[in-house]
Structure formats: C-alpha cells, structure tokens
Amino acid sequence: MLSANRPHCCLTTAVMPSIMAQISDPKIAFAYLRPACVLLTREPSVTNVETLSGQLKEVNDATLQQLQEYVLFPLRFVLKVPGPKKDKLVQAVAEAMSHVLENTCVQSWETLHDLLSELCLCLCSPTDPGKPADTSEELKSAVLRCLDALLHAAYGDIVFKLFEPIMLPGLGAAISLLLALGEKEKSRDIQAAALKCLLALTLQCDCTQEHVVPSSEERYAVGSTMASFLPGITMAVARIITGDLRQGHAVTVRAIKVWSRTVGLVMEDAQLQASEPWKTPSPELGRIAQLVIHRTPDWVKSTAGKLSELLKKIVSCTSAHQHWRVRLEMVELADHLLARCSQSLGECVGPLVEALVGAVNDGEPRVRERCEVALREVSQRNQSCSSHGDVTSQRSRTQTFTDVLSENLHSLATSLPRLMRTSDDQKKLFVLNVFLGYLKVLGPLVSVVLNSAAHLERISKALMQVLELDVMDVCIVEERRHGSTIETSSTSADSCTAHTQRKHFLYFTDEKIFSVLMEICRTLGYYGNIYLLTDHFLDLYRQSSTYRKQAAMVLNEIVRGAAGIGVATENQGLEGEGHGSPATKEDLKAAVVSVMEEYTSLNNWHLITVSEETDRDRQDQQLLSPPNLLSISNSDVSNVKAKSLQVLPSSFGFPSPSTSTSTIHQLNSNIWQLCIQLEGIACFSQALGQDFRPLLMTSLYPVLEKAGEETILVSQAALGSMWEISKACGYLSLKELINENSDYLLNDISLNLQRLSQHPQAPRVLTVMLTHSDCSLLPLVGDIVQDVLVALDLSYDHTAALFCSVLHALMKALVRWFPSSCNRTRPRPKQTSTNQEVLNIRQFLLDYRKQKELAEGIGIEEDDTENLDVPPPTECEDVEDIGGPDVKAELPSHLSITKDVMERCIHLLSNPSLRLRLKVLDVLELCVCVLSEKQNELLPMAHRCWPALLQRLTADDPLAVLRAFRMLCTLGETCGDFLRRRVSKEILPKLSSSLGRQAPISAKAGPVYSHTVAYKLQLAVLQGLGSLCQRLDLGEADLDTVCEACLPYLSCRQPIRLQEACLSVFQHLIQVDPDTFWFTLNELHCPSSYTPPHPDLQPVQLNGMGRPRDEYSDNVLKLLREEYGSVAATVDEPVS
Amino acid sequence: MSRPAPTPVYTLRGAGGPLNTLHFSCHGGDTPLLFSGSGKGVIHIWDLNSRRAERIVEGHSGSSVIWVSTLQSTEALISQGRDMQVCLWDLREGRREVVDSVWTDSVGFCQCSLLETSPGNYLLAFAGQQTEEIKIIELPSKTPVCALVPDTKLGMVMCIKLWQPDSGPGPLLLAGYEDGSLLLWDVTQRSKLSQAKAHPEPVMCLTFDTQRLRGISGSSEKRLSSWMLDTQSKLQVTVEMGGVLPFSGLSWKTSGAKEEEAQRGSRGHKSAAGYTVLAGPGAEDRARAVTPESNHPYTH
C-alpha cells in the first residue's frame, strides 16, 4: 500500500483486527462466552461481570442475538439473588445488559416484561416500590440507560402487550418511578434520562434510533391505557417545567416534550373521534378494571379543563424563559397539540394559540421561524376547515377555534390600553405582536370577528386610546415660513420625505411599536370588510375630536391594507385558498371616496393652524427683513428665497403671552390632523394606483391648498403627499402632476376666485401651481389671470392684498419661466490693465485732438456725411411699421399678462396701505424683469409708472423708499439711459442730499444704528447707486454729485457695511470714468509721489500727497490698489 | 332676478372657440358624454366622468357647427354646419369619419330636428333653400319626405322641432319664423294645423315638452313666450315673460335623477357658452337666465 508508511494508516490497521476479530460463529461464541457465564452464575462479582461484558464486546451482533437469552440469564440471575447487593455490581450488570440490549432485539414478551420489572426493582427503594432507591447516581444512570435500551430493543409485536389493561399496575409503577426520578433527582442527567425513558415507554421517543411506528389501532390502545396515567404524568411534569428555573434548559425542554407528547397521545382528536365500541373490561382483571379509563366526551371535557390550568402555568413560566430552546420547545408544544388535539383540548386552545402568537416576534430567529411556520399551519388548517366546512364536526371545530381566537382577541383588546399605559416598551411590543398574531391566524375570519359589534368596538377603542398623539410640542406651531416663499428647490421626493416630522405619542416612544400598530391596522383592512371598517372609523372620526387624529391614522392604514400594501408577505401563500384576496377595486374606490370626502370637508380641512397674532408678527417681520437689494440683478431667484428663509428669529413667531396654552395645543392638534389627512390622501393614491386619477378632480385642489399653507409641517406633508400621488398615478414629477391636471385645478380656482370671501385659499393654490409648474401652464393660466385681474378691478379695496400675492407668485413664475437678460448675471467688465492704457496713449491723444478740433468746428462736413448714414435704416424700419399697422404681431402671452399686471400695479402703487405698496413694488420689479426682453413694451410702461414710483422714492415711508429704490435699480438695469434724465433731475439731488445729511449721523452712531430704517436706507442706496449710475450712463455733473455724496462714507468711522457699499459705488464710478475718480481719490489721499520721467515736465502736484493717514486713507488705498493696480509702482500716467 | 347665479359644477375648458350647440348622450354605455360644436367647426366629445375632451372631431371645413345630435340606436353623431352640410359620423371603436352627408342649401342658422321613427330610421327636418321652406327627409335612405312652405310670408325659418305625438298618425313639426309666428305642421298631411303669433320679433329658439304639450319660445325682443297645444291641436300663447335674451337654446328640465345630473352639468357649461337655461317644469316664475358672458377661447 502506498499509504502504509503514513502514521494514521498504521493506526487504522491496528484497530482493524479487533473489529475483524469479532466472533461471528455462534458455536465459537457460545464456547467463548460459556465459561464466563457459568462463573458469573456461580459467583456474582463485579470482576466476573466485567469479564463477561468484555467478552460480549467481541461477539458480533447477529451472534449475540442468537445467544441473547443465554447471555442475559446470568446477568439477570445476579439481580434476582435475594438480599442487598452492592451498587457497583448492579451497575456493572446494568451496563453489560445495556450493551446486549442495545445491539440486539427483544423478541419475547416474557423477557421484556421480566426485564422491565427487574430493572424497575433496581431503581426503586426496597421498602417503598413507588420511590426511587437511595442508590448511587451512577447506578441509576446505568439502569435508566438499560431501561431505555430495553424499550428500544422491544419488538413491535410484543411491545404493545405492555399497554394491555392487565399491565396497568406494572406500567404505573414504572411511570411513577420515572416521574419521581425526573422530578426529585439532583443530577440533571438522570432527570433527563428518566424523562427520556418516559417518552420511550409511551413509544414517542425522539432519538435517532429506529422506533416502532404504531398503527392507528395500536395508537388507540396506547392512548387509552396512558389515559389512566395522564393526570399523574401531566401534573408531575408540569411541576418539573415550572419548578426550579436553574435546573437547566435540557431538563425543561425534555419535560415540555413529555408533557406535549403525552397529552398529544391521550387527547388525540383522531383517536377520540374513532368511536370504538367500549369493551367492558374482562372480569379476570378484577380490581385492575377500576384503573381502566374510558375516554368519554365528559372525561375529555373535564380533563381538558384541568389541562388548561396546567397549561396556563406552563405558558406563563416558559414564554419568557431565558433559554431559546425552551421557548422553541413551547412553540413545538403548541404546534403539536394544536395540530392533533385542537378539538378535544377545548379550553386549552386559547393559551396554546397565545403561546404561539406571542413567539412571533421572538428575539431568536430560530424560534421566530418555527413559530411562523407553525402559525401558518394553524391558520391554514383553520382556513381549510372553514373552506370545506361541509362536515358538521369540522364546522363546529372551526367554530370553537375561531371562538377561542376571537375571545382572546377581545380580551387582549380590552386590556390593551391598560397594558400600553403601564408596561415598558418591550412588553408593549410583545403585547402588540400577540395582537397582530391573532389577526394573522384568524386571517379571513377577521371579517367574521369584526361583524360582532362588541369586538369591533373593543378593538377600535383600543386603537384610539393607544394611538393618542402628544400635541404638546410647541415648536410645531412655531415653524412657519413666509407666505411668499414656497420652496421650488424640492425636486425629488426624498427631500420631502426626509422632512417628515415624527409623530409623538402619549403612550409609547418606540418607532417599532408604531409600525406594529400600523401593521395591525393594515391587517384589519386586508382581511376585514372595507365598508364596515371605514364606516365604523369614520363614525369615530366624526364622533369626537379626541379620536379624530387616531381614527384618520387607522383609516389610512386600513385602506392601504385593503389594497394589500404593506401586509406581511408570509400569508401570501394563503391567498389562493379561501377568501384572502384584498377588496375589489370598486369597493376600495368607494371607500376611499367617502373617507376623502370627510377629510376634505369644510370642517375638517379648513382648520386654523395659525393664531392671529403670530400671523401679524410674521408679516411685520417679513417687512422688516433686511432687503436683498441686489439679489435680482445678481440673478437667481432661489438665492432670494434662501436668504429670506433664514431670517426668522423664533422669538418673532412666538405667540404673545395672552394666547393661552390650550389654544396652542388646539393649533398643534389641527396641524397634526391636517398632516395625517394629507398622508391619508397619499395612502389612498397608493392603494388605488392609476385608478386614483379620476379622484384627482376632487383631491388635488385640497392638497395644493395645503401645500401653500404657511405652517411648515402642513405644507411639507402636503408636498410629500403630492409626491406620493404623482408616483402612484404614474406621473414622473410634481410638474407633470400639476400640468396634466391643471384643468381640474383651474376649474376650482376660477370658481373659488369668484367667491373669495368663502375660499380665501384659491390664490394660494394658484401660487403653488405656478411655483411647481412650467410655462406650458401659461395658456390655461392666462384665462385665470384675467379672472383675477377682473376680480381685482371690481374690488380694489378689500381683495387687493390677497390678489397681490397671486400676482407676485405669477410674476415670480414668469421670471422663472422666461429668464430674460435682466436676470442673467452681467459679467462685470474687467478693468483694463494699466499697461494697455500706456499703449493706447497715442490713440488717446489722437482722439482727444480730434474731439477738440470737432469742438472748434474743423472737419464737421466730414462728420455730417457720416451721420447721414445712420438715419436711413431706421427710416426703413419705420416705413415697414407704417406699412402694416394691422399685422402688428400679437404679444407673447406672458408679456401681455405682465403688461396687464403692471397696469394694475401702477394703480396700486398709491394705495394707502404700506404693506400693499411694498408688495406692489416687489411685483413691479418682477414685471420689469419680464418685460425687459422687449424694450418697446417696457419703456412705455416705465414711463407710465414713473410718477407713482417717484412719489414712493421721494415722499413715502422709509420702508417704501427702500423698496422703491430697489425697483429703481432694476429699472435702471433694464431701461438704461431712458431713465437718465429723470433720475438726474428728480432723484439724484434728493438721494445725494439725504446721503450727505445722514453721513455725519451714521459716522457717530453706535452699534444699534444698524437696526434702524435710516441705516437700511443708506445701505440700500449706497448698494444700488453705483450700478444705477453705470447703467444710466450719467453725465459728469451727476457723477460728481454722487461722488460728493458718497465720499463721507469712505471714512473708516462709518459702519463697516456702509463703507463696503460705498466702495462698491466707487468701483462702479471708476468703471464709468476711471481717470476722474483716480484724480478724486488721489486728491483725498495719495500714497506715492509721481516723478516726471523728464525734467522738462512739470512735477505732479496732488492735494492728497504727503498727507498723514486719516479716516479715508484705508478705503482710498484699497480702491486705488484694487481698481488701478499697484499703487506703490510709480506710473508716469498723464493726468487728464 | 336678484338671486345670484348658482355655482357651476364644473367648467369645461379648452374648446378653443365659442360654442354654438350642445348635446348630451347619457344612454348606452355608462360614460355620459356631452357633444359640443364650436364656431371653428370643431366638435368636442366630452367625457363627463373625467370632464375632459375625450375626442375632438373636426369637420365642416372650419365653418361654424350649429347643431349636433346622436342617433339613438347606433353610435353615430350627426352634425350641422354653416357650410350647408349635415354630416353623419361613425364614432364606433374610436373612428371619426364622415359616413354620409346631406346638402341643406340653407344659409340660415336654423338648427335641424331629428326624429326616430323606427329603429334605424330617422326623419330629419331642416330649413330649405327658399326662405320659408322646411324640408324633411328620411335617413339613412335620404329620400325626401316633404317640403313644407306656408302660404303667407313669414320670413326665414328660425327654429324647428319635430316630434311624434302619442296619439295621432304621423309626426308633427313646430316651427318658429322670422316674423315671430309659430306654426304647427302635420308632416304626413303636409298641412298646417295651427298658427300663433308668439312674438313681435323673430323667434330665436323654442323648446317643447311632448308629454305636457307645453312649449316655450324665446325671441330677440328679450321675451320668453309660453304656449300650449290644446286638444284640437291649436297653439295657444299663455304667458309672456320679459327681461331675458335667449340666444340659441332653451330646454326643459325634466324630473328624474339622471336628467338632473346632466342638466346640472350643462348649466355651467352653457353659461360659459352664452346659453340661457330654463329650469323647472311649469315653474316659469323661477326661470332664470344666466347672463351670457363671453367665453375665453384658448387652446392647449
């Protein structure tokens, strides 16, 4: 062999001979064993027993079988010898016998019977046969092993003789002995072994060896006999199970097994239903006949009652056992008994199901899985029975089972609120899981259970109480935002869902508990009758405001569940059979329609979420917010939002002390109710999918109404809801959702605009629509805008403010949809480098000379001809225009809308309400942006609005001046030199004088000054003035005025932001006329001396030269450095 | 007149032009439909469940559609346009093609009237080429049945209504004329049964309740006139009401939930289209005219 040199092979070859050498010839074996047997018979000693047992191991199994009786004889003889025996000897004998029995079969009833009684004698105390002997543990263990081997070795045809009535006393003795061992022994091994023997004795051993499989008659016989011992066994074993917690799980597990198997054997439905004629015990039994038990229905009933008591004890002791094997065994027990004896056990079914259901959420996955399988089987059995319930007995059986389940459910629902109040989260979760388990096991029968008014009432009340929300959170009311800024940035659904506020409940905090509760609701909806459920919970919803929110939550989930959404998949296997399938689409739709009608009805939808005071505060706050002056010219609109969203110190939103806390709670409660209802609409859309589309006719408008709500929580919920709806209906985005259904929305909007007093939210909906849509909406919106304008025209006094917000939203949308030049960032022309200037000096001088000559009248003719070239083309254009006045192209609708809006705004500019004037200025500014793409339209409008604007700029509240100036800047940006004269004539003098007047004040002011309107005005003017001057291309005189007015603000004594703003003015001015302002600045402060490159040239003298540093130095130097390059470098630039 | 107009249930938008005529079709399939004919020759078929134009049929070469109706037994649409054509459309299975057309030769605004005589057979009455002429033909065979011309000069035929009385051999026809007269014709006898002067000005529209034998006509002098047929089939003007300007349509609101539903739907629409709707059988005192307003045509 190749492998011969390997060590482990050597080992194998060494062992081989001993196996090979087993004696297979009976004759040789007999000859071999005989001396030892004889010796042992003669002289029973440990040594002799060991000799024999050693030799026995050298005989093979078949041979041993032939010699079984012969070999056993001396061993049994040792046991039979009267008088006390040494433990060691008996133990040796038991071990030897075990060997024999483990390897052979017992074919003779005599042997089995005798051995059984002999072994039992070894175990029991000689004085009291019912009690275990006070022998060594090793001995007991050996004897038990032997007993086990004997029971396993017994042949099928003889083993059943054990269960004949005549054997009752003997069997009883053995059983009580084993029970005593199992209960009283200190050694766990012996306890476990005794219990295993008990299992083997009832032919229900679960070990890996082969076992006799009894036929049904045999099983009946065994069960019948064991019935006599059932009380004893169950009680004793129950004591073991519920006994010492420290006894180790192995014993408990085995004990549970004994309990379950024994009960399962005796109380088996199949046996009890096979109504075998009662045979009166034969007279020769004598007194033994009294022991025989006939399992009559009465007996079964009373036994079941007793068993249920025991079972409750066991369940309470084990359902929370620390070791998972114990819990697993309990699941097995429940499964085993429910599978076999659910009918006969009657009262026990309740606790059994509870045990099973309670393990659904076990921490140990193995337990959980097993439990799920078991539950599935239970509900399957239950349903299959109910589906072919033609057999009366089966029906009654189902009835009882359902009764038990619904009974349990009822009592659990009753105690649920108490448990939810008192126990800890872990326990709550457990209880709810049990609740859910019941619903799952009941399956389609849930609808039957719910038909009972008492059950429905109980369950719904429990849910109402458990789901009570905590509405104390003050910050919910507080969170609000500017009505004008609705987020457009939320382009994805995620960003919305991420914001969803967690609900706070009174009775629990764990999110898991909430999700189980929601699953309970879904399961109810899945199995229950959707009409019944929605009607019932709608009743609760209407009944009282305390239940409203909870009822809505439950309704939402019920509908989802009814559509089969979020219902645990484990039951899907059942859907094929019985009812199982979710409600039909029509039913669901009808239910959804009724619920949604209730949700969006006036009383439940138009809830107050803002207290009046906070509302006013907010608006004031908005007006006082720092102006984002240049944000328009700086382009992006979102920027404006970002800024304006930040400014809201919470103190401003805080309600004044006069508002009692109860109102806050009411507001909070309203907010939550709206959120839940909005979530509900999303749930309904999920449930109906594409079928929800027709319902958009009624539901989309209310949702949009809430999306425009100022309370951030509500508007976010509405936005989230919109996302869900568009997903469910198959729209890719909110934009698509709104665009596709704009006809529905606009119908409602136009209707409600006509009855604005009853429907003040209509403008808000339009605002939301505009915010989320794009220009494809314009043709439809145009119609509505006309409505709005007409309505505005009809009642300027009352509704102007409201409509203004619509117009504002409209214009904002138009600015977004049609970005025009005014919105784009104008790249700031870079300052030409000084080097280039140097190079261009020659050209400059040439130009200068030419200009000078022109001024003196030289070369005019030449220029005239040049000038003449210019007009003809314009004339041509004119001719064309004159030629076709009729065919004047129709304005694009957005421009005509803008013109219409602007027209109204001009009227409103002089409205007595400051707030309105400010708003109108905002709108006007946006109008100008839109119109900027068409100068022909813009300029006349600018002309029209100029007088009103001038009033705002010169003779109005500082706040209005602020806005008006911003508007002027925008106008300047777009109209350019059209405004030059007007500005220089009518505006600049006022502005510069006010700047000049304010300069000393602000220079001396403290830090508080920056909160005053005067400061803000200064800042705004300075920030805007520069670009205005540049855009309007103002003349030198005007620039000088501006420069003069601004110079004081270069002082470092001014507030820093004013300095910065002033710097920006100069930056713009320098771009218009670099030389002049270089000179001006240098006159103020000149950091370097300029030496002429040639001595013939006169030295440069500037006022600022050689001056000590003063308040202006810093800013002047900064400007010179940044705008003219390095100051330090001496530049021989001529001064103009 | 002081009560405010009721809120329309819904405004159907997007017809793209002024509407001249409306027709409800609520029988047959479960989706109630509304047909509208616009001044731009477009017929919109509105699904009243989704409230959206389900189909758009363009015909009459862009001329104004002045009348639409459906044939009861088949899924066919019949329309009359200012192009002097009456077209029969096949709308089954999403088709929209002209199956047949009749040349009316009438330049007026008089709407046709249709009567189903037996399943699949119809009588169509329309104004003819001559001023007072009313032509009646049988459909689908297009055989002329008769031409009704009054003896006296009554001016143009303005509106007609063809119906089959419960008792009596043949269909009757009511016609309103330019001089304000109402004439009742017996179609089979080709004879005038009755004549009444309902208005001093042209009759613009009329409606007739064939059960109660009562009718109402509107005229350009802003008055409604109510009249009835007595047992001798004589027209008798009973009541006159003022202050309304019926343009092109009048209809009875009959009881019955389905009708009411349809009526509710129509009211809003008609008001937008410049219609006058009469509501409530026999309750003339509560009849209300919704002030016609210009609708705002737009296109999607």
Could you outline the blueprint of secondary structure elements for this entry?
The complex is a heterodimer of chains A (1136) and B (300).
Chain A: H1 7-20, H2 26-42, H3 46-56, H4 61-66, H5 68-80, H6 87-103, H7 109-123, H8 137-153, H9 156-159, H10 168-184, H11 188-201, H12 216-242, H13 249-266, H14 269-273, H15 297-318, H16 324-341, H17 349-358, H18 365-387, H19 392-422, H20 425-442, H21 445-451, H22 453-466, H23 475-478, H24 493-499, H25 511-527, H26 530-543, H27 545-562, H28 585-599, H29 602-605, H30 612-624, H31 637-646, H32 650-653, H33 661-688, H34 696-707, H35 712-728, H36 734-740, H37 742-754, H38 762-772, H39 778-794, H40 796-817, H41 834-839, H42 841-856, H43 860-869, H44 871-883, H45 893-908, H46 914-931, H47 935-954, H48 958-975, H49 980-1004, H50 1013-1032, H51 1036-1046, H52 1056-1072, H53 1074-1084, H54 1113-1124
Helix pairs in contact in A: 2-3, 2-5, 3-6, 5-6, 5-7, 6-8, 7-8, 7-10, 8-11, 10-11, 10-12, 11-13, 12-13, 12-15, 13-16, 15-17, 16-17, 16-18, 17-19, 17-20, 18-19, 18-20, 19-20, 19-22, 20-25, 24-35, 25-27, 26-27, 26-28, 27-28, 27-33, 28-33, 33-35, 34-35, 34-37, 34-38, 37-38, 37-39, 38-40, 39-40, ...
Chain B: E1 19-25, E2 33-38, E3 42-47, E4 52-58, E5 65-71, E6 76-81, E7 85-90, E8 97-103, E9 113-118, E10 121-127, E11 134-139, E12 144-148, E13 157-163, E14 172-177, E15 181-186, E16 191-197, E17 203-209, E18 214-219, E19 223-229, E20 235-242, H1 257-273
Antiparallel strand pairs in B: 1-2, 2-3, 3-4, 5-6, 6-7, 7-8, 9-10, 10-11, 11-12, 13-14, 14-15, 15-16, 17-18, 18-19, 19-20
Task: Provide keyphrases for this structure.
heterodimer, A: 1136 residues, mainly alpha, elongated, disordered N terminus, disordered C terminus, B: 300 residues, mainly beta, four-stranded antiparallel sheet, 1 helix, 20 strands
